Amino acid sequence: MLPKMGDHPVLFLPGPTEVKAELRAILAQPLVGHRSAAFVAVVQDVCQRLRALFLTAEPAAFESCPATALMEAGIRNLVPANGRSLHLVAGAFGERWQQIAASCDRSTEALTVPLGQAHDPAALQQRLLQGPAFDAVCITHNETATGVIEPLQPLVAAIRAVAPHALVLVDVVTSLAGAELRFDDWGLDFAFAGTQKCLALPPGLCVYALSERARDRAATIAGRGFLLDLPRALQETNDGKTLATPCVPLVWALQRQLERIAAEGLPTRWARHLALRDATLAWALGHGMRPFVADQTARSPSVSCIDANGQDVAAIAKRASDAGFRIDQGYGTLKGKAFRIGHMGDHDLATLQCLLAAMTATSA
Ligand SMILES: Cc1ncc(COP(=O)(O)O)c(C=O)c1O
Questions:
Q1: What's the CA-to-centroid distance between 235 and ligand 1, angstroms?
Q2: Which atom of ligand 1 is nearest to the CA of 145?
Q3: 67 lines ligand 1 (CB under 6 A)
Q4: Nearest to 188 by CA among 299, 74, 264
Q5: Would residue 1 count as lying in a domain?
Q6: How many independent structural domains does the chain possess?
Q7: Quick one: 270 and 252 in the same domain?
Q8: Does the beta carbon of 18 lie inside 6 Å of ligand 1?
Q9: Which of 113, 146, 154, 164 has CA atoms 20 to 30 A from the CA of 125?
Q10: Ligand 1 midpoint to CA 68 (Å)
Q11: Cα–Cα distance measured from residue 268 to residue 246, given in angstroms and rounded to the nearest whole number
C-alpha cells in the first residue's frame, strides 16, 4: 500500500495546479488598501518582474480576471471592428478563441489540424499568401486539451515573412513559465496567461505583454472598453494604479512566485518541465499505453495526454485519487480514451514518480 500524500489532494491537473504552502500562506495575510504606498510599490515591482518572465523589453502587466477575458480583450483591442482574424485551431482552446472573435463580430477563419497534431509553418504561410490579408493571427501555444505544443518560433517567422500587417496574438496560458517562450526574440505582439497553470498559483489573475506595434494598433481602434482597454490598463498598472481593485493577496503571491522563478532560472524551469514530461510518457509506454501526440517535438512540456489504449481510465484515475492525487480523465471527445496529467508549475520528479507508481495497476 502506497502512503497517502500530505494533507490535501495533490493536483496533477492541467490547471488549476498545485500551490506551494509558502504561497498559500501569503494568501491568508491581512489585507492592505490597494492604493497604499506599500501596495503600489508591489504592483510596480510585479510589472517589472513580468517583463523578465516574458523575456521582453516591452511593458507587461496583470489584471484580475480569467485568461478567457484576455482572449476577448486581445480581439477587441487589436482587431478592428470590420477586421479579420485567422485562428490556428489544434483543439478546444484554439476553437474557443475563434468563437470569441466571432462573438465580437469580427470576421474569422480557422486553420485547423486534427486533434493531437501541431501546425506546419509552411502550410500557414501558404494560407496567408492566398489572402485577403488578416489583421491578426491567433495562436494557442500549448493546446491544453490535447497536450500539443506548437512550433511557435517558426510559425511567427512564417507570419512575419509574408503578412507584415498581421499582429501575432498568442495564448500562452499553459506554456508561460513552463516552456521556452521568448516574447521579443520570437516577435510576439500580445501574449497572456492565467496564474493557475505553470505559475502555480490559484486562479484569479492574468499576466500579459503587449508590443509597441500592438499598442499603436490599439490606439486606432475605438470601443476598447474600460477595464480591458489594454494600452491604458498597461500604463496605469505600470504606474502602480490598477484601473479597479485587484486581487491583493494574489498579487503578493505572484510577486513572491516571480522571485522564486527568477531564483530557479527560466532555462532550469523549462528543463524541469521537460523532465517531468519525459518521465510521464516513459511510464505510459512502459505500461501498454502511448503518447496521444505522435510527433515527439509537439509533445507539451506542461501537460501530457496519454492514449490509454483501451485501459480503464476511470480505474487509473481512482488509483491516483486513492493515493491522494488528482489527474484529468480526458477533455471533450477524448474523455475516457486519452487522459491528461498536468505536470506544470512547481512539481518535482520525486512527487511525480509517486503518482506514476500509484497509477500502476498492481497486476500490470
Ligand atoms: C490554453 C488555454 N487557453 C485558455 C484557457 C482559459 O483559461 P481561464 O479558464 O483562466 O479563462 C485555458 C484553460 O484551461 C487554457 O488551457
A1: 25
A2: 16
A3: yes
A4: 74
A5: no
A6: 2
A7: no
A8: no
A9: 146
A10: 6
A11: 31
Verify that 119 and 204 share a domain, yes or no: yes
Residue 285, C-alpha cell as written in the block: 509506454
Q: What is the CA(218)–ligand 1 centre distance, in A?
A: 23
Q: Which domain holds residue 281?
A: 10-20+265-359
CATH number of the domain enclosing 138: 3.40.640.10
Q: List the end-to-end C-alpha distance of the chain, in Å, as a whole number.
A: 15
Is residue 97 lining ligand 1, measured as CB closer than 6 Å?
no
Q: Within this chain, do residues 185 and 302 fall inside the same structural domain, yes or no? A: no
Rounded CA-CA distance 39/33 in Å is 7
**Of ligand 1's atoms, which has the minimum distance to the CA of residue 66?**
10
For residue 293, give the CATH number of its domain. Answer: 3.90.1150.10
How does pLDDT run along the chain (364 residues), one tens digit per residue? Answer: 555 667 899 999 999 999 999 999 999 999 999 999 999 999 999 999 999 999 999 999 999 999 999 999 999 999 999 999 999 999 999 999 999 999 999 999 999 999 999 999 999 999 999 989 999 999 999 999 999 999 999 999 999 999 999 999 999 999 999 999 999 999 999 999 999 999 999 999 999 999 999 999 999 999 999 999 999 999 999 999 999 999 999 999 999 999 999 999 999 999 999 999 999 999 999 999 999 999 999 999 999 999 999 999 999 999 999 999 999 999 999 999 999 999 999 999 999 999 999 999 774 4
The alpha carbon of 346 and the centre of ligand 1 are apart by a number of angstroms equal to 19
Number of residues in the chain: 364
pTM value?
0.97
Q: 183 alpha carbon to ligand 1 midpoint, in Å?
A: 19
Angle between the N-to-C axes of helices 349-359 and 266-286, in degrees from 0 to 180, rounded to the nearest 10: 20
Q: What residue has cell string 517531468?
A: 276
